[in-house]
Each structure stands twice: as structure tokens, then as C-alpha cells.
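Q: Convert this sequence to C-alpha cells.
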Amino acid sequence: MRLFGGQVVAQALSAAYNTVDARPCHSLHCYFVRPGSPTQPLEFLVSRVRDGGSFTTRHVAVCQEAKEILTLSASFHVPENGFCHQIEMPAVPNPDSIGREPLSEGPSAESELKGPRVKFAFADDIEILQLEPRSSRPSAAMPANKRVWLRVPGCAGAALREQQLALAFASDLDVLETAMRPHGVFWWTKELQAASLDHAIWFHRPFDISEWHLFVQESPVAYGARGFVTAAVFGRNGHLVASVAQEGLLRMRPASE
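A:
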């Protein structure tokens, strides 16, 4: 069993926040160096890279048994006014109109998707609505894009810091699957070896992740056992609140291994 990557990203961001005064994070970039164990304690080593007039930079090394498992760099920015534009949010079904009937039955009982509304054992307070069905045929190729509604109801009324931590956690849940879809594989495919390699988030404006947010995910390329995915995160009011990018390992092992 491995430690969930989104949890380590969120904890590393929290450690960086503990050394910053009154400046929200506007971006983070991290590398998953080694798999982590959920049974061993984590050590967070924060370096104060820079404290400028408008921007603060921190580097966090997350260690387990004296070895780095994740490195994170985060930048914090004093709120200020400036230029404003964004892409438009696509037209999608309202999350309140989506029923609980399965969009597809999935290939087996091992499927995570029992219906469009999904809860995860390691994050019981996160809800996801899949707008594109997974194929019931195990090897069926599907488009390299998908749209997902996501919310964390327990964050209602939380400060922006906690909202960002929740989004950092949740942003590692679903995006890499977008790069699997054209190849007819999913998380439950027995021969698939998949893992996050690096991860980046840009926080564009304040948000309330306890409300539904739309993740518009696209995988423009996969090559050399790596898949790359981007996600634009929109609030229900159409505001683009964050952007996510991730590269992950996608490797098929021989069935005999």
C-alpha cells in the first residue's frame, strides 16, 4: 500500500503556509520522488527561499526514513488588482440534475465507479460526478478528455488556505485517468502500472470548494511510458479558479509479472 500523493502535496503546502504571513499561495510545483508508506511518519523540511515585497517563495522537502519522497516549491503573492481575462467555461449538465444511476456498469466489481457520484475511502468528504462514462468494454478506446464535477462539502466556511489544501488533495484523484482513456485502460487494469510523477497547480482567484467545481481535463500527449494531463477548474459561476497540470507514469507490464 502506498501513501496517496495528493495527501502529501496538501501536507507539504500546509507546511509552507506555516512559514508565510497573510499571503495566499498562487502556484505550486512538485515532484514525486519515491513512493511513500502510510505506516511511517513524514518529516517536512521547509526552506525560506525568498521573502520579497510582493512574493514569497518556499521549498519543502518531504522525507520518510531519511529519504525524500516529494519536493515542492510554492509561491505566495500579496493580493492586488490587475488585468483580468479568462477562457469561457464549457456548457455542461448542472450537477444538481445528474442522477445517481450508473453511467456505465464498468468492467467488474473492482471498478471504482458504481455510479456517477463517487466517494473515496481515503477522502470520504470528496464527491465526484463523472460526466463522461467509462466504457463497459475493458479495451475500448475513448477520447483523451473528460469533464468532472467535484466538491468537498466539509470545507464550507473554511479559510482560503484550507480551500487550497483541499483542492491540492483532490487534484491528484482523477486527472491521470484522462491519459489512460485513449488506450482502453483504467486504474483497475491488472497489468497497468500508474503513478504521479510531477504535479503543478496555479490558483487564480479565491474559491469555495464546498460548492461544485468543474474540472475540464485533457491529455494532449502520451509518450515514452508517460502521460500528460491538464485541467481547468471552474466554479459554477463560470470563474476559472485554478489550473492543474500533471505528468504520470503509464506502463503496461506483461501479464505474467
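The chain has two domains: 1-80, 99-257.
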